Amino acid sequence: MPENTPLLSVRDLKKTYQGASGPVEAIGSITFDVRPGELVCIVGPSGCGKTTLLKCLSGLLPPTAGSVTLDGAEVTAPPKKMAVVFQEYGRSLYPWLTVRDNVGLPLKARGVPRRERLAAVERALEEVGLGHALDTYPWQLSGGMQQRVAIARAVAYEPEILVMDEPFAAVDAQTRADLEDLVRRVWQDLGVTVLFVTHDIDESVYLGERVLMLSSSPTVVQQDLAIDLPAARDQLTTRAMPRFTELRTQVYEQIQRAKRGETVAAPS
Amino acid sequence: MPAAPVHPGPVHPGPVPAVRRALASLGYAVGLPVLLVVAWALATRGTTNLYYPPPSRVLTAFVSTWLAPDTLVRDVLPSLGRFAVGVLLSIVIGVVVGTAIGATPWLRALLEPMLEFFRAIPPVVLVPVLMLLLGIDDTMKLAVIVSGSVWPVLLNTIEGVRGTDPVLVDTSRSYRVRGLLAYRYVVLPAASPQIMAGVRLALSIGLILMVISEMFASSSGLGYQIVYFQRQYMVAEMWSGILLLGLVGVAVAAVFQLVERRVLHWYHGSREVARA
Amino acid sequence: MLGTLGVAGFALTWELVAWAEVVNPAYLPRFSTTAARLVTELGEPRFWSALGDTVVTWALGLLIAVAAAVVAGAVIGLVPFLRRATHSTVEFLRPIPSVAIIPLAVLVAGLSREAALVIVVYAPFWQVFIQVLYGVGDVDTVADDTARSFGLGRLQRLRHVVLPTALPYVITGFRLAASIALVLTITAELVIGNPGIGRQIDVYRSAPDAPGLYALVLVTGLLGLLVNLVTRLVERRVLHWHPSVRREGVA
């Protein structure tokens, strides 16, 4: 596939809910592309419909208008080539299955033979540093470790695109830093495309190669910003770079504008 | 894993207090029952009161009545067999139909008021109805047990399936876990705490209906025998029958608890962690 | 409403099955016949006196069960020694199916309301008793210690600390007990033969008077629904008046 063909293509995506007092417009009109191998962060003020957007992208919710295309095929149901990591790690892991079975179930659904499946599960858990926790239950693990299991499940699924919905919103700061580095590493090691949704400005700049800023509801893409930081990132040095601060300020100002409801120039 | 005892109690060094504690537990467990039996024995010593025979006579009657191979094969085992089959049928029907209804919102809205009505009917009044419809045989007795015990399982299953965490549903959908695999690994376990609560009710209702269906229309079985003893004023035998039903009830409760602990170990475990 | 449609669908199915005579019509009357019979039945003094008997037995049984269970539960629950000493006995007595003691009740009290009451009280008693034990066991030790340090006496602590904590449990126990008591009231009438709807059902069965039988079965279902509805209402009302005892406060 040529480098410039987008892997994921979102065109004029619109979502309106039928509220109690008439229709509620959750997403105004969103258009953007993600090219293969990119790590794109989507950042926006809380309540701007990030989760709705993500559900439309992943085929869990039909959009009211517009389209989502993954690898040339329109998304109408959860696609085979996409793995999702949800925000509520405590609720997205099956409490009745061990860590091993949690990671293995999607592979079983896909018909991967047992031996191969177990090997893939172990590999994925090694990758996230949980090779020792195969036979524990998710609820026996800390929040950060649970989210690692969810990431391992996504990794073992071998998707072309990994979609993450504010995955670290509910973990403590230290764990969060570790998990951010884990996402960067997985992205670099496996060459998977990553779409990372967050409300945290610092996180979006630190993680992303590109940051898409959303406006408040009804949501549109306010700005599409390339993050020109070096690829090897480090919690201490990267965050201390003057360029990091500049980018952060830029994103911050856009979000503040978005909160005030000012629309800005069309996305680049 | 948090496993702190609720009452740590005073701390003693050495192994002796552990033994003492175990003895104390045993004492608490058997103390009152022993006391009650002794009191009963003393109160009935030497009396010829027809209604309250001494425990020794009840025990003798128990052995001679219920452990006789004849009664065991003719009355006890068939009763227990009908109970087991009836409750198992209720569980299977309740879970299969319940998951189907629970997963289909329009079907649920359509059927729920009717199902609530059926559950509200005292199960025993279906005995006369089923006697009319099916006559007096094993099918009718099974039908009576099922017609009473299926509702708690069915309604709890519907409730459990409906209450499945939407995040888990989304997770399963996005990882394309579907069909039988989703049924086995997502739908059933998610509803299992509710299902087990329903099964517990089904067991006690089933036991009651087993007895009732035999009291009404039978010439054998536990329920029939107990009523027969009462009518013949064979009081010690009647008491022994009540004792047997009590033991069956306790055994059923114990087996249920064992199974429940196994099936829901993840549920109890995660709740314990959440509370800590 | 879809639910109304479901009820209509059930009635229609019944009507059609009976009309097609899948079963002998003497055993399965049509829905319309049964409904008409229900209306006639409502005009009969016999029906109302049976219903009255049932309601009185139920209410008496429930009252005795709840009162006894609350007293016994509170005493045993508040004294750790009694709690431990009675545990095994309770666990043995509780699962005994209430119908097992029907012969005993008949033997002791004859074919009377008193015999029925033994059955009606037995199972609901355990239901409430266990709930009271849970409720009393749930009393926050910090709250109790606080009350004690403020010099509240035993009775005052009972009134201001134990009662509010245990109340939701008692009410839940009451709601469950009310349904069970109704089931057992009708069961007792059917089996023992003391006056009430249950006995009337047995009369219609042996007549045999199928429309009457089915009509009364419908009545028992409606009665059950009514009890559920009322107790749920009571539960909501009482717990609403005691916002301090909501679950959040307990946890």
UniProtKB/TrEMBL annotation, chain A:
Q: Which InterPro entries has this protein been placed in?
A: AAA+_ATPase (IPR003593), ABC_transporter-like_ATP-bd (IPR003439), ABC_transporter-like_CS (IPR017871), ABC_transporter_ATP-bind (IPR050166), P-loop_NTPase (IPR027417)
Q: Say yes or no: keyword Glycoprotein present.
A: no
Q: Which Pfam families would you find in this protein's record? A: ABC_tran (PF00005)
| Superkingdom as given in the UniProt entry | Bacteria
Q: What molecular function terms (GO) are annotated for this protein?
A: ATP binding
- Signal sequence interval, chain numbering: none
Give the keywords, sorted.
ATP-binding, Nucleotide-binding, Transport
Q: Which residues form the ABC transporter domain?
A: 8-241
Q: What PANTHER family does its record include?
A: ALIPHATIC SULFONATES IMPORT ATP-BINDING PROTEIN SSUB, TAURINE IMPORT ATP-BINDING PROTEIN-RELATED
Recorded protein name is ABC transporter ATP-binding protein
Q: Where does this protein come from, organism-wise? A: Cellulomonas avistercoris
Automatic annotation (TrEMBL), chain B:
Location (main, coarse): membrane
Q: Name one Pfam family in it.
A: BPD_transp_1
UniProt feature coiled coil, ranges: none
Q: Which UniProt keywords apply?
A: Cell membrane, Membrane, Transmembrane, Transmembrane helix, Transport
Query: What topology does the record note for this protein and the membrane?
Result: Multi-pass membrane protein
Mind telling me which InterPro entries this protein's record contains? MetI-like (IPR000515), MetI-like_sf (IPR035906)
Q: Where is the ABC transmembrane type-1 domain?
A: 76-260
User: Which compartments does it reside in?
Assistant: Cell membrane
Q: Which family does it belong to?
A: Belongs to the binding-protein-dependent transport system permease family.
By what name is this protein known?
A: ABC transporter permease
Origin species: Cellulomonas avistercoris
TrEMBL record, chain C:
Q: How does it sit in the membrane?
A: Multi-pass membrane protein
Belongs to which family?
Belongs to the binding-protein-dependent transport system permease family.
Q: In terms of domain of life, where is this protein from? A: Bacteria
Family matches, as Pfam families: BPD_transp_1 (PF00528)
The organism is Cellulomonas avistercoris
Q: Which SUPFAM superfamilies match?
A: MetI-like
Grouped into one coarse class, the protein's main location is membrane
Protein name (database record): ABC transporter permease subunit
Q: Which UniProt keywords apply?
A: Cell membrane, Membrane, Transmembrane, Transmembrane helix, Transport
Cellular compartment(s): Cell membrane
Q: Taking every annotated instance into account, which residue ranges of this chain make up the domain ABC transmembrane type-1?
A: 47-235
InterPro entries associated with the record: MetI-like, MetI-like_sf
Where are the membrane-spanning stretches?
Answer: 55-79, 100-125, 166-192, 213-234
